[in-house]
């Protein structure tokens, strides 16, 4: 019989590499991404990240399963580990490219794009800066077993930057005689256009060769271009959805404050206020929009290529990784 007050070892047997929350429900996916994109994680010091990695790796090896370990502590370590280390290579990622850095970096970039949208030099600089940051994020989060080529990175970067600039500058010239609110929405349209160019170009290999599709138990069936197109479309919509709340609501708010004369009295308040509002909105919109579609998406076999349909006999649905 155990003595009172003595904490007995607890055998832990959960799968620490599986998501903590149910990914078949929207709220479960949202909880997962609220943890993944938590900007507080970028404040963790190097030794804290290394300690979290060591704890996760020791658990994977089975070294902690028969010891007294706090399950909640393990999940905190896993969250911190996921926030800083590449899932394929295990290497510590460059800080601006981490998912936990998306909110603080994007709030500054987006806020400045919406503040300095009237002059051509400002539009060129901030649209270029935004696409450079996106390229850095894409490179940092590239797949470990299917490295994005330098040619693909450069092509998508140049095309997205060119598309964003052409859209922003072209629309700015067209809306000069329209209400001020219309002009404030131009950065959102430009960013949306860039996403529609950048994401398909970054993943063009999937469009030409297909993305892997598999059965529910993980057995790979083949490569599908149909699934690739669907996955890329979902990712593009999610990215636009992340930007929409801030880049549409904030111009409405700022336009009303401007009409009331706030920025005539306090002109230096415009940029800090827009950056702050961006941060508040992105903290919520980023995980909520990442959660719209399941990471492991499903697709009906009847919609796939004939050669895949011929290989599948006893199931109606296959699965694939849609990407982020």
Write a structural description.
By secondary structure, the protein is mainly alpha-helical. It has two domains: 26-96, no CATH class; 102-321, no CATH class. Helices cover 60% and strands 6% of the residues. It contains 13 helices and four strands. The chain has a two-stranded antiparallel sheet with strand order 1-2. Strands 3-4 form a two-stranded antiparallel ribbon. A hairpin with a 5-residue loop joins strand 1 (211-214) and strand 2. Helix 4 (102-115) packs antiparallel against helix 5 and helix 6 packs antiparallel against helix 8 (186-202). The longest helix is centred in the C-terminal third of the chain and has 35 residues, at 225-259. The protein is globular. Mean pLDDT is 85; it is low at 1-10.
Please tell me what the overall shape is.
Answer: globular
Radius of gyration: 23 Å
Number of strands: 4
Secondary structure: helix percent: 55-70%
Q: Report the end-to-end length measured between terminal Cα atoms.
A: 51 Å
Tally of distinct domains: 2
Query: How confident is the prediction overall: mean pLDDT?
Result: 85
Structure annotation, total helices: 13
Largest sheet: 2 strands, antiparallel
The sequence of SSEs as H and E is HHHHHHHHHEEHHHEHE
Q: Order of strands side by side in the largest beta sheet?
A: 1-2
Q: Beta-strand percentage?
A: 5-15%
